[in-house]
């Protein structure tokens, strides 16, 4: 079963930390975009049940409305739910040429027969304090930042690697779809993503998707790294076999790679924890969770929400303890060898380069709407 979860707390900023009062004043909304891709044999109830962001009292009504409006599910259809600050704002069933959109207020589905041609838009931003602030100053839609962070998530960790003076150029659609983006950072260098046949590639046609995400959280502050530290509860020096990410209670925790959950429950000092077995001898552990959202034996996809940040076990405050093992040996998470997916086949590269040239032409064309 293929499930894609995109969850992000939009406090994305520079490495330098502002004071607490400043953070609270600027705190942006939490946007949750969750997709379920229909597989062979799925029925409406299967698809709806797999959207955790949809309230239980809405699911039954949603199944009935979908059955009345859509009639038949097709393999590859995508059921999407979007919540902002915990409030369900949109549900869509998307297929190649049709979108069925559900309005929670009117409780109706609206069919849009064809996707209208999207007028491209272009924006440039330069980071002064946070990437979020730069977007707000330009009046750019929050969903665009959600999508940008998602497509760059294998290359750039916007929670720790963004610095003042970094710049971003993006060609996008009014609905937030990213066509082409270029990020130039002082610490990460230059990175480009281009959309082609529904996926994202760099300028050479290599997939930007990697085996492992750079971080299991989207918004955090690292409080303890891999090595030796003075334990705040045990009051003694001892090895620290992972990385601690401070984040608010309830922050979504994502699987950094696809795999099988081999443990989900209470694990001594780790408190509520999840352990996932991945390919090539890797295992990842997520500790001190406030809530576990998966079960042992379950397969999870990269980026799927597996739990929420808490402070269970030997913990002095809300944070995630993240560990990586390779064939049983604990290793520094920063040393994970994250391999890219296969590049584009040679017979598609000419089409890709033509698309790339068109993106670049539009970036400098009066046809686009400047923001």
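Sequence proposed for the structure above (371 residues):
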């Amino acid at each position: 079963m293929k499930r894609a979860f995109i969850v992000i707390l939009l406090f994305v900023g520079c490495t330098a930390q502002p004071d607490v009062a400043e953070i609270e004043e600027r705190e942006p909304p939490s946007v949750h975009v969750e997709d379920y891709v229909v597989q062979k044999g799925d029925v409406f109830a299967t698809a709806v049940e797999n959207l955790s962001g949809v309230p239980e009292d809405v699911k039954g009504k949603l199944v009935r409305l979908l059955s009345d409006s859509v009639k038949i599910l097709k393999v590859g259809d995508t059921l999407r739910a979007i919540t902002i600050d915990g409030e369900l704002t949109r549900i869509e069933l998307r297929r190649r040429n049709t979108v069925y959109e559900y309005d929670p207020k009117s409780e109706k589905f609206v069919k849009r027969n064809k996707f209208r041609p999207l007028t491209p838009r272009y924006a440039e931003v330069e980071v002064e304090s946070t990437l979020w602030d730069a977007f707000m100053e330009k009046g750019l839609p929050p969903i665009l930042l959600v999508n940008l962070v998602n497509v760059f998530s294998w290359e750039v960790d916007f929670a720790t690697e963004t610095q003042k003076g970094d710049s971003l150029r993006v060609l996008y659609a009014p609905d937030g779809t990213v066509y082409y983006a270029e990020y130039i950072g002082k610490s990460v260098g230059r990175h480009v993503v281009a959309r082609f046949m529904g996926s994202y590639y760099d300028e050479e046609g290599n997939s930007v998707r990697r085996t492992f995400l750079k971080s299991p959280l989207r918004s955090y502050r690292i409080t303890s790294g891999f090595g030796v530290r003075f334990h705040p509860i045990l009051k003694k020096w001892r090895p620290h076999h992972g990385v601690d990410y401070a984040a608010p209670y309830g922050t979504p925790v994502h699987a950094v790679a696809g795999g099988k959950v081999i443990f989900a429950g209470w694990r001594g000092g780790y408190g509520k924890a999840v352990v996932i077995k991945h390919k090539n001898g890797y295992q990842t552990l997520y500790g001190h969770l406030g809530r576990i959202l998966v079960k042992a034996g379950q397969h999870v996809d990269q980026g799927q929400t597996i739990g929420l940040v808490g402070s269970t076990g030997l913990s002095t405050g809300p944070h995630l303890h993240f560990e990586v093992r390779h064939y049983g040996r604990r290793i520094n998470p920063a040393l994970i060898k994250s391999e890219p997916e296969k590049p584009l086949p040679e017979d598609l590269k000419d089409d890709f380069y033509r698309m790339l040239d068109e993106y670049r032409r539009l970036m400098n064309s009066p046809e686009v709407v400047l923001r």
